[in-house]
Amino acid sequence: MNAATRKGPVFDPGLCRCCGNIKKCRLLNVEYEWCGKKEIYSDMFVDCFGLFLTNLDSEPTERLICATCVTRLREATCFKQQVLQCEQRLLQTEIKVHVEEEVKAEDGAMKEELFDANNALDCSPMSDDDGERIDNDMDSIKSDPEYKPAKKIKRKKKTVKVRRKKRAKKEIEKPEKDRETIEKYDVTDEKPTQMQDVDVETHKPKKRVIDNEVKSFHNTVTLVENTFVCPFDTSFSDYYCVYCREVHTDPVKLREHTLTHDPTTFKDVFNKKHPQIDITKIDCRICTAAIDNVDDAKRHLTDAHERFLHEDVTNEFLKFKLTVRNLKCLECDASFSFFHALKKHTAEHFGSCVCDVCGAHYFEERMLVLHQKTHQRTDESYPCKECGKAFKSKHSRHLHEARTHKKEPAYHCNKCDEILFSYSLRYRHMIEVHGEQRMYPCESCDRSYDSRKSLREHNRRFHLKIYKHQCDLCDKRFYLPSRLKEHLATHTGERNYRCEYCGKSYPRLRGLKVHMQSHNSEKKYKCVLCMASFTQNVNLKNHMKRQHQTDGEYHEVSQ
Q: Which of 6, 30, 224, 463 counts the highest number of beta carbons within 10 A?
């Protein structure tokens, strides 16, 4: 039976922050129980190595440690304690021996001084009469009122062993002192609380300078908790709830959903340097005051409700007013059709990471690094080992090998254990299985699509009429190159699409697909008047005209 028990959250699988392996992990700054003792791994790093880990207030997936690293940390802590205890025990033993040697040396020195005094008085040994005489003389001297006995001077010999003992004591007490001198700042309080250090020279409290990032964090949390602003995350143009990661494409539904969460938990999920806040509605949560902008909200919270806000920081977060269509930049009033394009434009106003080649702005250093690689690209390609097809990246080659040669799915669903073969299949899986609502309406007509790509293709084809592929033999243009290829067959008389069952050939693929339905035993087109069924739509129309003298109107019924 395993006696070691643990109490606390476990993430399986998780990425260990200490070794980089994907294993079953625990949180670094959460208390666990092991063998009847409480342990917090981040504190153990401080005690053992004096190492203060950063970003311990980020998402749980970014502050994990695996069981292997926990075992190594425990062993290091125990080993350090063992070494310090043995060192202290050794020093105490050596100091005790050293003190005894000093006492013996002092006794020997006193005997030598008495022997020298005897020699000074008389070279012969001191007799009993001489002793009595000396004692009488000493008594007369001590009886004198002005007599003051001389202080005994002891010389302390600081040996290497004594200094080693002091260093050992400091090493033992150092982690506790370090923890006591760490600056504390609680963003949930209305006012900041700090521990003040004392200047050694002036003996006055030092004035601590709070980092602007901490101030921005405090202001953002205060506004989210006390107003109706809506924090959100994005992936391209999809909006995610910061509390539960539910996806939305309609900003109105995103705001309605966010109101169902407790805003006081925002500080627990806050993990970005540049948080995104929808300020379409900034009314006060505490009272019924209607507020139009962020500056008025800050003044209202400070004056009316005595909430503490740092006044020397601005632009604590990225401000947006989310709408279904025609998104606008709040700085320069530029319009965009998709949020992804708006956020990329916003980086030109507030992005601090700038490319020194082309001047492009980014919010994060990692995105700038990826962008700078585009300036350094060569003609390097990554060929497939099976078929020799070249790809621009290792990731594209990996997906090709998994889908084409290994017949393995490579697209993971982030809500279940399902793995799918393509991005489109995963997209469809999220809608059908997990009920994600993704509808993108067309601005020019009443059509709507469940993917952004389909909406873009619809706009280019039917409204913008972007026909780039023109026939060389006539003036006709086509949106897809495949349609141009089918059209060329009408000029050459080629019939390249042949039925594998009966040998009939067709100039267009669409014609062959319609013909293939005649070989299908499934007759999904039924007449609602006489219950006759057909494999093709055109046959049902002809039946309605001939047998029932209608104009071809019918009802399609699928089996």
A: 224
